[in-house]
Write a sequence for this structure.
């Protein structure tokens, strides 16, 4: 029986056609086909063959510069089909990438949480490489997930970016968002192709730190966006930024939870299974061989657990390996966000990452910091020194058995000092700015 041609089927056919066109465009602009076409042209026109000794290496150099982001790649195919991208709804698509931790994801969730509170009718869609999608359920946020390229066997970068382009294009054309927000240090080529040419879509890049000269950012990446969000930090930057001519939105540091979101001291301790009358220290130091007695994390645990009636709560990353150790008075938690338990702790020992530092600062926990001195552009030492200047933290630059023991002694001697910061939450500030920019077209 012949199938009736309906509007839905026409859209489906149009989507299939555009998918094939994108695939054809990727093939035509691929390095292998462009190089092959260059050689074939020389065969067809023999007078050009002697010039191959110069033209072929030059073309290979230009393509190489494209691949490392120093030269703009060929323009992406315009994919706005059947007028489907000419409308936009009360929807925002957020794309947090995942690094070694939850930084990008947490900043996006902090913003999404407040935007939904401000406008309950607003639809927030996450499109992410983070595997922890269940964390969005309490906020009623649906998600599209694509695994990072390292999880696909035999996938080259261009193949993964082609998959990303298709998945994100489908997401955008299905939900018709008014705004797209990306949080990541490096923009994926497939993402840029998917958002290119969508003039009705407000495209925003949330990125900590300035675009310094010589930074490894593809030269044609920034121009795909309309605005840059630069969340604040405890430290200020004096580095001169390249001229990108985009609107820059700034805010105070972003923190996911508010004071009202924290469990009470009793609730936190009951859930963690620690006595109400003990001293409790939260430890979150990231990577490290915990069974190596010379490692920073093991020396820290040994130094803490020498104290009577002291319990250690060790944070285990939800996207990391399981911690394999059993020690008296040691409790391992694999939860998110761990800051919800902060009222149950007397002090904290951690590295100097953006999210963990500003959470500790916002909720007034006495802290001992082990700044990572090899984080490139993220100056953890300078950030952690702010805690010493403000009088609520201590910093150990070189961690040895003696320096860790002394640092813990100082920390516990001041563990009763708790002073909540009065600084505004950048997520609230950005929420107001972005909500005012949302324009819905029926």
């Amino acid at each position: 029986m012949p199938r009736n041609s309906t509007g839905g089927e026409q859209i489906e056919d149009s989507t299939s056609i555009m998918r094939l066109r994108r695939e054809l465009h990727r093939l035509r602009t691929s390095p292998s086909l462009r190089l092959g076409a260059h050689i074939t042209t020389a065969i067809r026109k023999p007078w050009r063959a002697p010039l191959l000794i110069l033209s072929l290496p030059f073309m290979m150099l230009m393509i190489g510069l494209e691949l490392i982001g120093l030269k703009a790649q060929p323009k992406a195919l315009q994919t706005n089909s059947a007028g489907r991208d000419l409308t936009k709804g009360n929807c925002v698509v957020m794309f947090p990438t995942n690094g070694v931790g939850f930084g990008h994801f947490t900043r996006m969730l902090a913003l999404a949480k407040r935007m939904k509170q401000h406008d309950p009718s607003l639809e927030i869609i996450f499109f992410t490489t983070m595997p922890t999608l269940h964390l969005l359920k309490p906020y009623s946020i649906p998600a599209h997930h694509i695994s990072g390229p390292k999880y696909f066997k035999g996938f080259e970068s261009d193949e993964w970016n082609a998959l990303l382009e298709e998945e994100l294009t489908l997401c955008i054309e299905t939900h018709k968002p008014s705004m797209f927000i990306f949080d990541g240090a490096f923009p994926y080529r497939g993402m840029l192709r998917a958002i290119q040419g969508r003039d009705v879509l407000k495209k925003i890049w949330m990125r900590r730190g300035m675009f310094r000269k010589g930074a490894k950012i593809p030269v044609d990446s920034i121009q795909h966006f309309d605005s840059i969000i630069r969340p604040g930090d405890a430290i200020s930057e004096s580095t001169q930024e390249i001229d990108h001519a985009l609107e820059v939105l700034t805010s105070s540091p972003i923190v996911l939870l508010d004071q009202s979101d924290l469990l009470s001291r009793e609730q936190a301790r009951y859930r963690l299974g620690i006595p109400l009358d003990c001293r409790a220290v939260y430890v979150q130091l990231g990577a490290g061989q915990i069974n190596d007695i010379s490692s920073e994390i093991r020396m820290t645990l040994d130094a803490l657990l020498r104290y009577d009636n002291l319990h250690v709560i060790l944070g285990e990353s939800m996207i990391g390996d399981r911690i394999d150790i059993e020690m008296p008075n040691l409790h391992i938690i694999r939860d998110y966000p761990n800051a919800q338990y902060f009222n149950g702790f007397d002090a904290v020992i951690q590295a100097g990452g953006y999210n963990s530092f500003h959470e500790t600062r916002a909720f007034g926990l006495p802290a001992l910091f082990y700044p990572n001195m090899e984080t490139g552009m993220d100056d953890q030492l300078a950030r952690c020194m702010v805690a010493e200047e403000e009088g609520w933290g201590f910093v150990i630059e070189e961690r040895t058995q003696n320096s860790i023991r002394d640092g813990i002694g100082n920390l516990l001697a001041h563990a009763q000092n708790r002073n909540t910061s009065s600084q505004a939450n950048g997520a609230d500030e950005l929420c107001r700015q972005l909500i005012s920019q949302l324009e819905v077209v029926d």
Summary: Residues 16-67 form one domain. Confidence is low (pLDDT under 50) at residues 81-86.
